[in-house]
Amino acid sequence: MRAITFYEYGPPSLLRLEERPDPVPGPGQVRVRVRACSMNAADWHILRADPFLARLAVGLFKPRYNVLGCDLAGVVDAVGPGVTRFKAGDAVMGELGSSGWGAFAERVCAPEGVLALKPANIGFDEAAAAPLAGVTAVQGLRREGCLKPGERVLINGASGGVGTYAVQVAKVLGAEVVAVCSPRNVEQVRSLGADQVIDYTQTDFTQSDARYDLILAVNGYHPLSHYKRVLAPGGRFLMTGGAGRQMAAAVLLGPLHSLLSGKRLGYVTMKSNLEDLEFLRDCLGDGRVRSVIDRTFPLDKVPEALAYLEEGHARGKVVIQVALPSEGRAEATRGEPSA
Ligand SMILES: NC(=O)c1ccc[n+]([C@@H]2O[C@H](COP(=O)([O-])OP(=O)(O)OC[C@H]3O[C@@H](n4cnc5c(N)ncnc54)[C@H](OP(=O)(O)O)[C@@H]3O)[C@@H](O)[C@H]2O)c1
């Protein structure tokens, strides 16, 4: 099979298209013929070992995993001993961040517990776009943010991978949604259901009189004290991403701010969770949530796709379509915006 490999930390130009033996599923694993996978910031953070501390998790001197990619959708083509939930031919979607990565390939083995059946009415591209970004949104808003119907939530950084799912999931949860993005994305974010859209080039929401029950900070930077100022009494601020200094502040100073204010400020790390994945899958299946796909690339263009994502201005998700050479598909879409 073909896979995109790397053996040392560095820029996307180190990635190579390589022939590898097909993996064999072990106990409790299935092998998925990957039809599409998607890019996440985590891929380039690991590729570059940036921040340096990432090496503690993925290999101090050399990467522990040689094939990146955690989001995938595809078809089960082999099952290992003890597998009960899937059989060959099932279309599945899932996230491999806690189970060895490897989705930038034609085939990958995964524990059955990190996969869910793909809704029949969405394509492989849409399904592969969703797991990591969508589950991050679900966990930030529902599991950790405890967002209730009627509450007012602000999503800072609403136009990227996580943000586009967060706007929609917040609406599913019955919240009033205020979304922050740049002017070029205002219409798209509004079309996802945001009740109000703030253009961050015109308005600093932390200086307004509006108050929020929950702020999900996905991208961008404001000092923690500014976020705290615009939280309603008992409000929650949860950060999932953004500038490094913002993350450090949320992790280190969040608990202190929480102690003294009666509000909750902190950082959320996405954890693989089948219940959250299935909730997201059901929302995709019944149309309450849709994947916003910025661009699609073929497997051999993963380096270009990763470099594009790293620029930090993707509108929704960047998806890799994985065709077998024998399928004769013309790999014509090379970084073009999706229709
Ligand atoms: N904690 C976790 O477990 C977890 C999980 C997933 C992701 N993350 C992190 O979350 C962050 C976002 O991930 P992502 O997948 O959404 O990234 P992404 O898709 O690369 O985000 C790109 C989007 O961010 C917007 N953006 C850039 N600067 C902004 C600013 N100053 N204010 C508001 N929006 C801004 C861009 O729009 P414009 O170009 O129009 O500004 C673009 O639409 C990353 O730092 C990632 O590492 C963390």
Automatic annotation (TrEMBL):
Superkingdom as given in the UniProt entry: Bacteria
Pfam families in UniProt: ADH_N, ADH_zinc_N_2
UniProt-listed InterPro entries: ADH-like_N, Chloroplast_QOR, ER, GroES-like_sf, NAD(P)-bd_dom_sf, Quin_OxRdtase/zeta-crystal_CS
Enoyl reductase (ER) domain boundaries: 10-320
PANTHER family assigned to the protein according to its UniProt record, in alphabetical order: ZINC-TYPE ALCOHOL DEHYDROGENASE-LIKE PROTEIN C16A3.02C
Protein name as annotated: NAD(P)-dependent alcohol dehydrogenase
Source organism: Hyalangium rubrum
Lineage: Bacteria, Pseudomonadati, Myxococcota, Myxococcia, Myxococcales
